[in-house]
Design a protein that fits this description.
The protein is of the alpha/beta class. It has eleven helices and eight strands. The longest helix is centred in the N-terminal third of the chain and has 13 residues, at 15-27.
């Protein structure tokens, strides 16, 4: 059985509902959380996540998201990652940003190219920030070698071309690339397009785990109880 990660947008659709979802993830044995800090130009996000980001940005910003993250950590005892965009960390000052985040398992910057990770990491001024590496169906052999080298936590393998959401499918070439980086000392988790238990089973066959974002956020839009029922369909 692979590991399950759930992506939630900090404070979406409200602080209370967000924290209710975090508690549900704890209750249903979700392995790790990704807490998204909304950004005004989320180039990797599909319609559902972009809409959620725009909603929370109307009333909040990084200060609120950091507070939401702190409260989430008090309710969820698995690993917690923060997912956002490079501009947020860069504009605040990367060392300052890392200090404000506190102890997280890793930082996922959706728009940070693999080749720029070493240079970007230097900006964190000695803070031990674990920058998660992405691979995609277009990644070359040299990219896969670079991703594995020095990776900690997991490698995020994007299942398909384009933005989040949509249907889930793994073609043979993508399966082969995932297989090539598995067993190299770091887990490989698949994201983008995974929505239901059947998708999870396919992902678990190919990789070490899976991440659900768009569908989780969509279900949470219907309330905490609706979200809890969705988690139950995935885990029980």
């Amino acid at each position: 059985m692979g590991k399950l990660g759930i992506y939630l947008v900090a404070d979406y659709p409200s602080r209370e509902v967000f924290l209710g979802a975090v508690q549900a993830c704890q209750d249903f044995g979700v392995d790790f959380l990704e807490v998204g800090f909304a950004f005004s130009d989320p180039v990797a996000d599909g319609d559902v996540l972009e809409k959620a980001a725009n909603e929370v940005l109307r009333t909040g910003g990084v200060d609120a998201f950091v507070e939401a993250l702190s409260q989430a950590r008090a309710r969820f005892f698995g690993k917690t990652y923060v997912m956002t965009y490079s501009n947020i960390a860069y504009s605040l000052g990367m060392g300052t940003f890392a200090k404000r985040l506190g102890p997280v398992a890793g930082l996922i910057l959706a728009d940070l190219p693999l080749r720029e990770i070493p240079a970007f990491r230097k900006g964190f001024n000695g803070f031990p920030v674990n920058l998660i590496r992405f691979l995609t169906p277009e990644s070359r052999g040299v990219d896969m070698e670079r991703a594995v080298k020095g990776a900690r936590g997991f490698i995020y393998f994007v299942s398909k071309r384009g933005t989040t959401g949509g249907a889930f499918d793994l073609d043979q070439e993508t399966r082969e690339k995932i297989a090539a980086v598995r067993g190299k000392g770091v887990d490989v988790y698949i994201g983008f397009g995974i929505q239901e238990r059947g998708d999870l089973e396919i992902a678990y066959e190919a990789a070490d785990g899976a991440i659900i974002g768009t569908r989780a956020v969509k279900e949470l839009g219907g309330g905490v109880e609706n979200f809890r029922q969705y988690l139950k369909s995935l885990t029980m």
